[in-house]
Specification:
By secondary structure, the protein is of the alpha+beta class. Helices cover 48% and strands 16% of the residues. The chain has 3 domains: 85 residues, no CATH class; 58 residues, CRO Repressor, CATH 3.30.240.20; 55 residues, bsu07140 like domains (CRO Repressor, 2-Layer Sandwich), CATH 3.30.240.20. Strand 1 and strand 2 form a beta hairpin. The radius of gyration is 25 Å and the shape is flat.
């Protein structure tokens, strides 16, 4: 048992260090190559952690080879467009001028339901609002709305903008985040006063409260239920 514990801790340390070497992109934007490397390294790590008959040093060396190979290929891809296309792929157009490109869907193994799910995740519940859609090499779909469906900005309306900055969570699940409150240069007395104005006698019933640098306090209540709506298939 002690042996397994020590092996597991060592593997965790090695994987953590390799993740740092491979960079944040490995964690935040998994592409096909990163996915393969991540799965393989996870499998090797689990195997040599639990199987005490396998040589620990050989397993660590194997992990290091995978990790440094990934870092090397990432560096190579920064310098070479050809390498980038081979290892990470290229974006594919799946909608153009409001029309669905079936070849693009087939190439990315994406069906119509999945395209609609991606659109809804980006705030488009009607495909007719979309002018162009591109499947990125990371698997994320980027959407460009039609000109008439683009949101109006303050710049378009020539409205003077207030400076925006940090938005802090000052209440989470009925608990005050005193550190965040202090960062926003406020105290609990001020918070209670503001809540009283908004009709709250205590923190009970508050799921989340946020505060920006313009002193705008937003409250999200607990226990809000979804309305019955059309089932999405």
């Amino acid at each position: 048992m002690d042996n397994i514990f020590i092996r597991t801790i060592l593997i965790l340390i090695v994987l953590f260090l390799l993740a740092k070497v491979m960079g944040k992109k490995q964690i935040s934007q998994l592409n096909i190559f990163d996915y393969i490397i991540g799965i393989t390294m996870g499998s090797i790590g689990a195997d040599i952690s639990l199987d005490i008959e396998k040589d620990l040093l050989s397993g660590i060396i194997s992990l290091m080879i995978y990790g440094f190979a990934s870092a090397l290929i990432s560096f190579w891809s920064l310098k070479s467009i050809t390498a980038r296309r081979i290892f990470y792929g290229i974006p594919t157009v799946i909608m153009e001028k409001g029309k669905i490109i079936e070849g693009g869907l087939r190439k990315n193994k994406l069906n119509l339901n999945e395209l609609q799910e991606e659109a809804r995740s980006s705030g488009y519940f009607d495909l007719s609002e979309i002018d162009c859609a591109v499947m990125e090499s990371t698997g994320k779909v980027s959407f460009l709305p039609k000109e008439e469906n683009k949101p109006i900005t303050k710049k378009d309306m020539k409205i003077k903008c207030n400076k925006e900055g940090l938005v802090a969570n000052i209440i989470i699940d009925e608990r005050v985040m005193f550190t965040n409150l202090k960062v926003m240069d406020k105290d609990e007395k001020w918070l209670k006063q503001q809540l009283k104005v908004l009709g709250y006698k205590s923190y009970k019933g508050i799921l989340l409260a946020t505060l920006d640098n313009n002193d705008k306090l937003l409250i999200y209540k607990k226990g809000v239920k979804a309305n019955k709506s059309t089932v999405l298939e």
